[in-house]
Amino acid sequence: MHEYEWEEQVDDFLETTTESALWVLVAYGWWKPSSSPEDVELGFMTCTIDNFPDVVAFLMRQTPKQYSFNFGASIPLRQMEALRKKFSAIQVRTLAVRGLDPHDKWHIVALRQICSKYAAARWLERGVALVDICGFTTTTSPRQLAQLLSLSRAAHSAYLRLKGASTAADYEAGHELPLDFCRSTTGDGYYIWNSVFGQHGDAAVLALLLQIMSVIEQRRAEPREGTVRIRAAFTVGEIYQFEDQGIQRDGRAISQYIVGPATNYLARVLTDARPGQLLLGDFGRRAAGDEGAEIGPQELLDEALDMLRFGLDSDLADRSGACFIPDHKLRIVDKHGQTHYCYNVGAHIPNRIGESRFVQPVGLTVDETPALDGFTFRPPAPAMSPTEKSSEATTTEADTEATDLGECQGEETEA
């Protein structure tokens, strides 16, 4: 339901302009013609879905300050026209609107909400987690329902615990934690990310993932039947995000979806992962507040643990921690013959439930790794002579550094 009269006009125009999603909205903007002071001329920059990555990359080079990664960034209309002349994949379409006040923040909020329905977003550095229920397709439908409910309740419980840590962070450090999470179902699990962009938002996603695994492992230790088993992975990488407009509630989309290299990577590395295993991607991302600095998996893992320690006794916080087992990255060759790198994580997650204080182990430990005899982790590539190196262009330094889980235990594990 629209609050302003002009909203329906803009909505209908964008529905026609995007031609049932064959085109995607990239940016919007406006200017007020002096001849018609009551009218505002809106401009909408569009391109085909196939050209969307190239257009976004172009805008990031040409307008780094104006173009954010949000759904339908705001760019002045006249600048849109100049950009269209530089890149033929861009189209700019205009609409005269009466009643829209570009100086009224609530009008702009309403305009942005309409534009987000027809736009997509591309993120080059977005933290994403994948939680996957083990053995989901091999069980009965009632059991599948029970597993989904169990995972959903575990995720909610983990969020509430993290919410408590956020309240403590506000008291101890003067700021709350960025807990504006989104999720997209995979049928037997979730992709989870944070609408808060940046290092701290990504660390919060990893903290939530650690807490979800902690809740599930804690419940497994209790005398109950049919506890859900999960495996999970986290990385930082490129994704495309869009809202699902097929089904709405009160005029707003009720689902969001993400696709891209980061989600593909998570799905590949988890294919043969074992129940209870946590994998962390081999990534680098820009550090918050330090231009040019970069952090990796260990730094983000440390920050996630620090978030979980807020509000806890020092003794409990000191007994928590996480490390890579083994202490270097692993090389995975997927079913398509592509090579990926990741880390196996073992952690002790601090928890406080009522009067109970405890540290919950999550992930696979050194003692459990021999059970991974069916893994597709591969041993490192053998060292090559200088002659072989010059003739083998596909060999990378990472290939010779990576080590197989099984080899660290004195055995080879070829799929």
CATH superfamily (homologous) name of the largest domain: Nucleotide cyclase, GGDEF domain
Q: What is the overall silhouette? A: elongated
The stretches of 5 or more residues where confidence is low (pLDDT under 50) are 370-376, 391-415
Radius of gyration: 24 Å
What is the beta-strand fraction? 25-35%
Q: Helical stretch count?
A: 12
| Total separate domains | 2
Set down the secondary structure blueprint.
Blueprint (H helix, E strand, L loop, with lengths): L4 H13 L5 E9 L7 E10 L3 H11 L10 E2 L2 H10 L4 E8 L6 H12 L3 E14 L7 H33 L7 E5 L3 E6 L4 H22 L9 E20 L2 E8 L1 H10 L7 E4 L3 E2 L7 E2 L1 H13 L4 H5 L2 E4 L5 E4 L5 E15 L2 E8 L22 H6 L5 H5 L3 H4 L7
Parallel strand pairs: 1-3, 8-10
Antiparallel strand pairs: 1-2, 2-4, 5-7, 5-8, 6-7, 8-9, 10-15, 11-12, 13-15, 14-15, 15-16
Helix pairs in contact: 1-4, 5-6, 6-8
